[in-house]
Structure prediction request, 144 residues.
Amino acid sequence: MLVQQILKAKGDDGVVTVQPGIEISEVAKILAERRIGGVVVSADGKAPDGIISERDIVRALAVKGAVCMSDKVEDLMTRNPVCCTKDNTADEVLTRMTDGRFRHMPVVADGALVGIVTIGDVVKARLQELSMERNALEGMIMGH
Ligand code: AMP
Prediction:
């Protein structure tokens, strides 16, 4: 299973990005409204300069309190996020996410953002694949 197939199954909603200069309170609103846990930060809407997730906001809240809501995204984001391409496999992405302890991965082509996959998307795709393999094997054993 390739990242390309995972993106196709998700549908083409476009990728949400935020500017590095907006306030954390704005990002919190976007995450809540869109029911997502993280968003790619990009100054030009193409190159992924960073990524900011709910974890970064919770960490800042614990350290500085509610004043962090007026910090800029670029102060809290993780720079140079680990990205994948459409040709990576689901297993490669899962391994990178598990090793790096993060749940979001921007997908790039020629340095430009073309999508984002979450650990939930990848696990869902792998479960569907396993279920199809299981049905095919059962069919072979039962002689269908
Ligand atoms: P997450 O599990 O995705 O909510 O993120 C956990 C931490 O990893 C946060 O500090 C994120 O900014 C960071 N992070 C998320 N995705 C990536 C990525 N693809 N590459 C590097 N760091 C990331």
In short: Residues 40 and 51 are 4 Å apart (CA to CA). The two ends are 25 Å apart (CA to CA). Strands lie at 17-18, 38-41, 50-53, 78-79, 104-109, 112-118. Residues 37-38, 51-56, 78, 81-82, 100, 102-105 surround adenosine monophosphate (CB under 6 Å).
